[in-house]
């Protein structure tokens, strides 16, 4: 049985659900600085009661390894693909790859991508790096335009090291800083000016990633929805229309396809062949559940050109919380819902329900939140008279969590449960949002007569009452009123 762990760093409270873990270190190509860094990091794990094994074995939680900066690793040597079989482990551990880059080289790469991303169209020559697929320049350009030079560098290193989770250590004789990368493109920075805080900070970032669990084990509920019933619902068409409208506003970015970055055989256990950015869902009273977009990990999903096969029906959450409860539809492909299915449904559990009456085609009791939008975007500003921002619990700003996890669903549920606009349906604010550092935004709209699902959201975006931006905060944030009274994002 793993014991719980609740350490603190200064004023920062780490997540209460952290536990003690088992980890091992198997270095690849390294540098003197990286050797020292790895030993210090391992010492911090040991000092905090974690089991650091001399070699990978048994029920291993974390495998640390190393890779050179800027040099491609053959997939047959990558721990992400080979660790479980190579060490005969009970399951695949979470792999973190440590990479060292000098301060000058790091700045050169940032400057290079800054110039490359400033061009109106990507120049393939700017993205001609070892180990990349022919079309990689398109993904690096698109990702960099969304998240800046650091995100382009992140995708490059993930492709070359064949690793999703990377700790990039910047420095010469000693570490200066480190960036922690993950699948969705997070890149929080850890300052090395105080070594104790630095290594504790990185230890807690690693623990945050591995101490939660995925909640994508969805279960099918009988009976299926018949084809005639499905055809009579208004929400599938509304979902398609909303996807088109959100697409016009470029809310969703292009899907990241592994094959466009590197040439590697599909290894489903290690990583999906692609992932889509974001999902959305709206309540359908006739089925007592959400009509939601399906997962993009199985096959590409283009959000602004949805078909019926790219919609799923969520009617609840499993009793153990490991996934959503879904109903299939006769005649549909019935792919599972997005990895955020549990959070989309579970956030309603602590909020009131309302009764639809005059002004609606149907009279029914429904959740106060009508439609929900989750995307890898940030919010630059908003009109506080019309929009409410609900903060997360403090720990999530210092130690962000990622998609498809129980921790993220918990964070979102808790944040929206504190919404004044949702707890008091008469509150005039019709849109509520929260920002997940390193990840993106979750937006909710209430039921407004005469409006289609998501129409309130896109109209608020058009009126700049909710101003969406590409960049996503990587840590603590706050909104403060400007001279005109508008709430504007402040980074800390």
Fold and architecture overview:
This protein is globular. It has 2 domains: about 10-210, no CATH class; about 220-490, 3-Layer(aba) Sandwich (L-fuculose-1-phosphate Aldolase), CATH 3.40.225. Helix 3 (about 105-115) crosses helix 5 (about 150-160) and helix 4 crosses helix 5 (about 150-160). The protein contains 13 helices and 26 strands. Strand 3, helix 1 (about 30-45) and strand 4 form a beta-alpha-beta unit. Strands 10-16-15-14-13-19-23-22-21 form a 9-stranded mixed sheet, sandwiched between helices. It is α+β, with helices and mostly antiparallel strands and about 500 residues long. The two termini are about 40 Å apart.
Name some characteristics of this structure.
single chain, 492 residues, alpha+beta, L-fuculose-1-phosphate Aldolase, 2 domains, nine-stranded mixed beta sheet, seven-stranded mixed beta sheet, 13 helices, 26 strands, 24% strand, globular, disordered N terminus
